Amino acid sequence: MKKSRKYIFVLILLIVLTQNLYFDIYRGSAFNVMPHDDYSHYLLYMVGDEEGWLAEPPYTYRILSVAAAIPFYYILPVYRFTNLEGKSDNYLRALEALALVFYISIIIGSIFIYRITKNRFGGSEPASIIAMLISFLLFRQTGIYSIDPLAIMIISIGIYYLRNLWIFSTIMFLSIGFNEKILLIFSLLMIARIIIKKEKINIGTISPVICLAIYFIIRILIFIPGNESQVQPSSYYSSFLTNIGYTFSAKGIILNILPTILTFTLYYFAMKVNNNNFNPNNFFTKTDFIPLAGIFIIAHLINVDYNIGRISLHCFPLYLPLATICLVNNFNKKTLL
Predict the structure, then answer these.
(1) Which pTM was predicted?
(2) Which of 22, 68, 246, 273 is geometrically suited to a Cys-Cys bond with 103, CB 3.0 to 4.6 A?
(3) Prior bond of 58 cis (ω within 30°)
């Protein structure tokens, strides 16, 4: 009972601190305050509304990420903005439903960061709460108007259940319909651990790779035109050169490089405290920079322009828990790192 009260307290704390975020996401989506992947018309397509249309790849294949909003589409009342014109009630209802999914994902993802820090790495209560609050700030640097929070939440849950073979494998299987970046990150993680750390091959370690292969098989068997260059290696070289130009521009340094450096900094601090006391079941290894480096390179091979930084931030749940423990311990010792 005491443990359940603690989680209720953590949940209430998060909601109190973040309750305005839902309306920020909804308002930002409705007014289109910044470029983002708009899944509202895909949601309308799923519910059979005439305003809906089938999204183009790779968004088409993230069907579960959008389907998660269907119950909220029918439950939520329509909230209109005074200065917003030309938007139908059904369109706003779709935006509301998706915004709630993204907000709930941030809450659940942050709670799992707390649980990873506390239960998987044995962090103190203050360190665990700090990690949870930092994760909220990092979520804000991703595409909160799109499905990034949902993908990062699933990555956090996957890390928590990393050593539970069947639950982890089930999460990977479901990720086929949620977001391919989840499978890509965990595939890079497991391949690096198998090759470099000689980790045992089992259903858990190979499930991300198998599910990633299934994802591409589905894309071949259920072909939907659009963004074909993302799966055509012949276009990767030219895309790489173009994206390198974006990355090293003034805008690219802010949007692509700085978030990646921030994520790598978390890895650095996690590595400093990596030992058996805080990492008894190898939830973190020194090879775990591979997913970050790999996804940073892969993102340059496809047409993502200034989105490389937010894609890199999908890796932060791998490093944040131990990094926070490292920082809190050093502050407690009053020593410099």
Answers:
(1) 0.94
(2) 22
(3) yes
**What pLDDT, in 10s, does the model give residues 125-178?**
999 999 999 999 999 999 899 999 999 999 999 999 999 999 999 999 999 999
Main-chain dihedrals φ then ψ at residue 16, nearest 5 degrees:
-60, -40
Calpha distance 35→255 (Å, rounded): 13
Residue type, 196: I
Which residue is it, tokens 């707390």? 114
Please enumerate in sequence order all residues whose Cβ is within 8 A of that of 207, keeping only pairs 6 or more positions apart, or say none.
168, 169, 172, 173
Among candidate residues 204, 119, 199, the one with its CA nearest the CA of residue 165? 204
Task: Tell me the three state secondary structure of residue 318.
Answer: helix
Amino acid letter at 96?
Answer: E
CA distances from 270 to 276, 281, 287 (A): 13, 15, 12
CB 172 within 8 A of CB 208: yes
C-alpha dist (Å) from residue 285 to 3, 120, 189, 252, 273:
29, 13, 10, 30, 11
Q: What percent of the chain has pLDDT over 90?
A: 71
Spatial contact of 29 and 145, defined as CB atoms under 8 Å apart: yes
Q: What are phi and psi of 58, to 5 degrees?
A: -85, 0
**Alpha helices by DSSP H, the chain:** 2-30, 40-46, 63-67, 70-75, 89-115, 125-140, 148-160, 165-175, 180-196, 203-221, 236-247, 250-252, 258-272, 290-301, 308-312, 316-333
Place of tokens 């968004």: 59
CB atoms near residue 63 (< 10 Å)? 15
Both tokens of 84, joined, read 């917003």
Taking residue 38's Cβ as centre, other Cβ atoms within 10 Å add up to: 17
3-state secondary structure 40-83: HHHHHHHCCCCCCCCCCCCHHHCHHHHHCCHHHHHHCCCCCCCC
Closest CA to 314 of 144, 151, 111, 101: 151
- H or E segment to which residue 226 belongs: none
> pLDDT tens digit string along 250-285?
999 999 999 999 999 999 999 998 887 788 888 999
